[in-house]
Amino acid sequence: MVRHSAAQAPNEARSYRDIPRPPVWPVLGAAPALRRDALSFMLEARRAHGDIVAMPLGLRPAVQITHPDLVRHVLIENSTNYGRSPMTDRLKFMLGEGLVTADGERWARQRRMMQPIFQRDKLDGLIPIMTAAVEDMLVRWNVLARSGTPVDIGAQMGQLALDVITRALFGKSGGPLAEDVIRCIPILQEYTASLFWTFNPLAGKLPTPNHRRFRAALATIDTIILRFIRERTAAGAGDADMLDALLRARDPETGAAMDEKALRDEVITLFLAGHETSANALTWTWYLLDRHPEARDRLEAEAAALGSAPTTAGDLNRLRYARQVAQESVRIYPPVWSFNRLALDADTLNSYTIPQGTTVFIPPWVLHRHPSWWEDPERFDPDRFTSARSAGRPRYVYLPFGAGPRTCIGSHLALMEMQVVLTLVASRYRLRLTSDHPVSAQALITTRPSNPIMMRLEPQAKAS
Ligand code: HEM
Known about the structure:
Blueprint: E1 14-15, H1 31-49, E2 52-54, E3 62-65, H2 68-77, E4 82-83, H3 86-89, H4 92-95, H5 104-114, H6 126-147, E5 151-152, H7 153-170, H8 175-195, H9 209-235, H10 242-248, H11 260-291, H12 293-306, H13 313-318, H14 320-332, E6 339-343, E7 347-349, E8 352-354, E9 359-362, H15 364-367, H16 387-390, H17 411-428, E10 429-433, E11 441-443, E12 447-449, E13 454-459
Parallel strand pairs: 1-8, 3-9
Antiparallel strand pairs: 2-3, 4-6, 5-13, 6-9, 7-8, 10-13, 11-12
Bound molecules: protoporphyrin IX containing FE.
């Protein structure tokens, strides 16, 4: 494998205009190509032009970086020079100023307050909650399996991940109110996905039927979340679920609690950031497992060896292969295919000066397929993540959860959830694709299958 360093760049100063670039439109820049097929465009841009590529968005400067040294520079060493991109701002009308959309001091304060809630050792109590959500799904699956009805696995994993995050946030008090949230969240998700590649400034503002449906769903969710918050505040926060933890959170520097608006923004952010990504990762994993029976057999053997549903951190420690499967699945199909930063001031990347206001794309989709760091990158091989084979791999070529101060706050939760779901489902069912056709990936807010993935549920005792 050829390994090269970003530091090998020549010493003379070069400007943004000198950065290699794919052919793009005069005024629109790379926007049409990104909208048509961002995944292929970004991959090909790296292959043809290297680890720093200019990709102007209309008349605004933008670059893609795919070298671990450059990624470290932007996300870690000079992270204070890189803020939220305007693409993220577009979610503010829905998420308010929650962790995903907030910036500057407000973000730093919220992150300080929420970080302890998501530490790995604080999450063990969620394992039985996850197991219970899967068991409920498996009861529904009994009926479908008996009638031989194939399932849309994306829809099933979406419902499951939403159920998990609802139970985690609201615990037992969820009940019928949470059902309304569960009904409305997919409406928000579909609406924001439909706007994702729209560059029309009026998009999202016109009173189309979809827009009205979206506003109604958002209003319903807001009412329910505020009701949960008010009831809980009046009763006094206990120690039962994440809502309690958010109510009890205090800024370690000032001792202040979150106000009602901040709580609302964080709860809706956790709902949206915490379920579509996980659902996506699980969906692709079932797809990959059916196409790689040797990996599926090992996962099933590990699940059988555990002998019961995972309920403790000790159980998860024994499920090493399930973890590797999850890690490899989010390498091949990273749910967040690219994340972006905005340069607050001019900076030098690989000896090119990029102007203030440059959007920097950091695409896990491309980094995870970089032939300098991954052997046979398109091959599904969970053993890449054994400690022996991970040793020596640069940290910043594997970014399913980002890195640096804004790294995913839910990464431990997400990996635990994947381990629990994969193990418990694999112990009861073998999921078989109904068609041999390869499924392609589509870049929306997350990396989605371009068509529904239909699977048959074979009860394990009968699976051959
Ligand atoms: C497989 C599942 C998941 C993936 C692949 C994923 C991926 C990511 C990535 C790449 C980022 C960083 C984006 C950036 O740097 O701009 C991020 C941020 C975030 N994620 Fe996740 N995520 C997952 C699950 C979750 C879950 C389960 C939660 C919460 C329950 C969550 C909550 C968040 C939040 C709040 C942020 C913003 C953090 C900040 O800016 O301080 N994510 N996620």
